[in-house]
Specification:
about 160 residues; alpha+beta; five-stranded mixed beta sheet; 5 strands; elongated
Length: about 160
């Protein structure tokens, strides 16, 4: 923890990307320093697009429905193999359920920030309505977070699934 704080300071950067995560244009895990009660605190932040969050919520709901219909889907989730025909049947059902959830507008999401203190590190998870997570978006988030100036859009959004 202290090592990361020192590394951020020594590199004279506002943040450090966590290279151990599979970061993408939709999702970035990074560390930055904030001040709480007059003391420096390390923040382990995850910033992702609202569209990615929407897609993961749709997928989670579709998985729940698939498990109800096909209990053996749990084996696929754990990386075990099923007969090819059964796997195709389950995957087809999952896709159909996802399409139906999207079509029915069952899932809507809004911008959010969750904070939790874990072993002396402030864990922050934020889903924001942006096309992708860029350096500019990360810097804006850090500045707004550190200045207690985060303004979240509470509008509900749904997106078109890729496919």
């Amino acid at each position: 923890m202290k090592d990361l704080i020192e590394k951020i300071k020594s590199e004279k950067k506002a943040y450090l990307i966590n290279d151990e995560e599979e970061n993408s244009p939709d999702f970035v895990n990074f560390f930055f320093i904030t001040e709480k009660n007059g003391e420096e605190e390390l923040v382990n932040a995850v910033l992702y697009t609202l569209e990615m969050y929407y897609q993961s919520e749709v997928f989670a709901k579709a998985e729940d429905e698939t498990l109800k219909r096909y209990p053996e889907y749990e084996k696929l989730q754990k990386g075990k193999e099923l007969p090819e025909q059964k796997t195709e049947e389950i995957e087809m059902f999952l896709t159909e359920v996802m399409d139906q959830i999207e079509e029915d507008g069952e899932i809507q999401v809004s911008e959010h920030v969750f904070e939790e203190n874990e072993d002396g590190v402030l864990m922050v998870e934020a889903g924001l309505n942006m096309p992708e997570v860029t350096e500019t978006e990360i810097m804006n988030f850090i500045n707004n977070f550190n200045n207690d100036n985060l303004s979240l859009d509470d509008s509900l959004y749904s997106f078109e699934l890729d496919g």
